[in-house]
Amino acid sequence: MWPVGWEALEQWGADVVRGEPLTGGVGVNEVWSVRVDGRVAVGRLGRRGDADLAWETDLLRHLDRAGMAVPVPIPTADGRYFADGLVVMTYVEGRSPETEADWRRVADTLRRLHRLTDGWPQRPGWRSSTDLLHVETGTRVDLGVMPPEGVVRCRAAWARLTGRTRSVVHGDPNLGNVRMTADRVALIDWDESHVDVPDLDLALPHNAAGLDDDAYDIAAQARAAWEAAVCWDPSGTDLFAVKRLAEVRA
């Protein structure tokens, strides 16, 4: 008997096994190690619709074909890349970044992502940061439940991005979502990826992307505003969101 929701795992083959829970996807997804055809993989079960999952799996396959190190979707026995909200992907080995040199490699990898996805269509139902200058909602963002003065500050931060080119951004390039080896940098957990201004990915530790002072301030303020909006709880009790909103200047 499979746990509720995981029955779909059978569609990856009769010998598939669910292992241990993994970190990541807190509050949004269940993420577990699985074994498919004897290989260790990762299963992610969530509430995203088919159009959303098709966008994400198409993106990951595109990046894999272009030579980027990413979790690669593993198809079901009948060739689908997701089923009933479940995606199974290759497991990515590696360590988290530790040094300034490590983070410079991460910045190079993010810029490669941005180059490879110029003109990519928006994730279904999502809005970019600059879209939110004119609308209030988009997937996990609802500006209507945030403090009005906080919304003014967030929009002021995003307004500084107006007119810039857009591409896919990873959306959450923290150290837990990077897996490094001596010869490659992999990005995992693409649940927040969408089309936006690349600056959102480049406010990195040690200013590893080499932005000038003004550019770094624009990127850091826009990212703080984005994370506050994405994580905001109507009760105002999400401490991370409250902290990030407090960092957005008037």
What does this structure look like?
- The chain has helices spanning 50-65, 100-116, 148-159, 213-231, 239-246, and strands at residues 17-21, 30-36, 39-45, 86-90, 137-138, 141-142, 167-169, 178-180, 185-187, 194-196.
- A four-stranded antiparallel β-sheet has the order 1-2-3-4, with no helix packed on it. Strands 5-6 form a two-stranded antiparallel ribbon. The chain has a two-stranded antiparallel sheet with strand order 7-10.
- It is of the alpha+beta class and 250 residues long.
- A hairpin with a 4-residue loop joins strand 8 and strand 9 (185-187).
- It is built from five helices and ten strands.
Main sheet summary: 4 strands, antiparallel
Termini gap: 54 Å
Helix content: 25-40%
- Radius of gyration, CA atoms, in whole angstroms: 18 Å
Order of helices and strands: EEEHEHEEHEEEEHH
Query: How many beta strands in the DSSP annotation?
Result: 10
Counting helices, strands and paired strands, the structural category is alpha+beta
Please state roughly what percent of the residues sit in beta strands, choosing from under 5%, 5-15%, 15-25%, 25-35%, 35-45% or over 45%: 15-25%
Query: Can you list the strand order of the major beta sheet?
Result: 1-2-3-4
Low-confidence stretches: none
Overall average pLDDT: 95
Put simply, the count of helices is 5
Shape: globular
Question: In a nutshell, what does this entry contain?
Answer:
This protein has 250 residues and is α+β, with helices and mostly antiparallel strands. It is built from 5 helices and 10 strands, in the order βββαβαββαββββαα.
